[in-house]
Amino acid sequence: MQVPCNEAPKPLFALGKMLYGIAMVYVKCCVHNERAFSEEHKLKIKQVLTEIAALACVSTAAHAQSAGSFYATAGWFHFAPQDSSGPLKETSVGGSPVNIDVPGTGAGISSADTAGFTLGYFATDHIAAELEMGVPPTFDLEGTGTFSQYGKLGSAKQWSPTLLFKYFFNAPTAKFRPFVGLGVTRTWFTDAQITNQQFEGSVLHGPTTVDTDSSWAPVFNVGATYNFTEHWFAGFSVSFIPLKATAKLNTQAQTPVGTLNVQSQAKITLNPIVTYLRVGYRF
Question: Does a structural domain hold residue 138?
Fold first, then answer.
């Protein structure tokens, strides 16, 4: 009888073969010592040691990317917005609603990098759920169109925890496993502010606070992992997030008739491509 163990990692596969070999040698010794052991005893010993060898093979699969396994990763996110924006629009002046576009104006978002972390769980040998998080990166708001002369206009921190469901190809014990994923992210911004005093004074005409909306967005993900050992692996993924945001400005504008509250907004399309290079540990 042979114990199938072709897909086990080499160290435990060797252990299985060794145990099976011990069983064979031990039984052969018993053949020459009929007085010590009966035929029934020899068969039982052979069966027990063969089952131990098989168990060694089975136990190796539990450490692969298989059903029931948890994993954690740490790495580096790079956000590359494919951005565009509409013109700055005044929506209220002195409490009176208006709808005035400022032609030729616009804004864009810079790229950013940050540390990232994920936690994942394999529900089956091929399907995993993964929660992605990162240290909130700081994005620069840059003027475009007639605002380009001002350069950086302000900044904001982005929060975007993401839940992904991934399908992994190849066998759980394979070293290289590509995957595709689909998920959802909740995105919001904090610490948004105008930092360019020239822009604030010349264009907005007074001290301005900034608020942004939050939104849900789908996430489309592809990538691959490479297993170095039973526990350690590396991975790389690319995600696309169709995302839009609205920045709302509240200005205490200095005018010839006194200080007026002016509210305006700019709609920005971000559509970031997010890459993630990581190292992970499987439990």
Answer: yes
